[in-house]
Each structure stands twice: as structure tokens, then as C-alpha cells.
Specification:
The protein has 129 residues and is α+β, with helices and mostly antiparallel strands. It has four helices and five strands. The strands form two sheets. A three-stranded antiparallel β-sheet has the order 4-3-5. A two-stranded antiparallel ribbon has the order 1-2. The longest helix has 14 residues. The chain is elongated. The chain starts with 10 loop residues before the first strand and ends with a helix.
């Protein structure tokens, strides 16, 4: 049975967050995988290996499409270091994969900046100063 996940952190309006951020990572502050804030992660859809808690499930739910570590941290409202630890657990269990942002498609204007365009933008900005 799939757990029903709250839209945000477990929060009591009067008391604040019910579970302190580093409690969800068992006090661990270092990830075992080399995640950065811009690392893109996504769920694999594979059966996970290992026991994961509600916060792991929330991270996994956020990774159904490629998403950055920073975005996961922001949506969960916990420090990025905590998210990196949770993602490391999930990566070791085969539940998520990480990598850089996907490359731009061939022929895309994003594939390689146009030097002439960049110089024209620079020159235009300099003229405004």
C-alpha cells in the first residue's frame, strides 16, 4: 500500500515543524553520494532495497520527474544537506538516479551560446551604463 504523503512537512501551526530536519536523516549530515544543489535526480521506478521512512517517500514522490536537489529541499522545507542524505539512501537502494541536467537537443539554441549574440547583449548593456 502506498503511503499518503502530506503536501509539505509535518507542521503544527503552534509548535512548528513536528520532526526536526536532522532527525529525518538520523543525525547524519554527510551524503554518501556526490550531490550538489544543481544535481538532477529522478525516480527509477524500481523496487527499492532497504527500509525507508516517510521523508524518503516524500523525496521519492518529488522525483517522479527530473528535479534538482535544491528544488527537492525547497519543496520539503528542509536543509539541502538533509535532502542529500535522503537521496543518497535512495540512490544506494536503487530508487533514484542522479546526473547533470540533460543535454540540449541537437540544433537547439541552448546547445551552444551564439558568441555574436552574447557580445551584442554585452555591448548593449555597457551602452546603458
Amino acid at each position: 500500500m502506498t503511503p499518503v504523503l502530506p503536501d509539505g512537512p509535518l507542521v503544527d501551526e503552534a509548535a512548528g515543524r513536528l520532526v526536526r530536519p536532522y532527525t529525518v536523516s538520523d543525525g547524519r549530515t554527510r551524503a554518501t553520494s556526490p550531490f550538489t544543489l544543481v544535481t538532477m535526480v529522478r525516480a527509477t521506478g524500481a523496487q527499492t532495497q532497504g527500509a525507508f521512512g516517510l521523508d524518503h517517500a516524500q523525496v521519492l514522490a518529488l522525483c517522479q520527474r527530473p528535479v534538482s536537489v535544491a528544488e527537492v529541499a525547497a519543496r520539503m522545507q528542509v536543509p539541502a544537506a538533509v535532502v542529500k542524505v535522503l537521496l543518497s539512501d535512495l540512490a544506494e537502494g536503487g530508487a533514484v538516479v542522479a546526473g547533470d541536467a540533460p543535454p540540449a537537443p541537437p540544433g537547439s539554441h541552448c546547445a551552444r551560446p551564439d558568441r555574436d549574440l552574447l557580445e551584442a547583449v554585452r555591448d548593449g548593456l555597457l551602452k546603458r551604463l
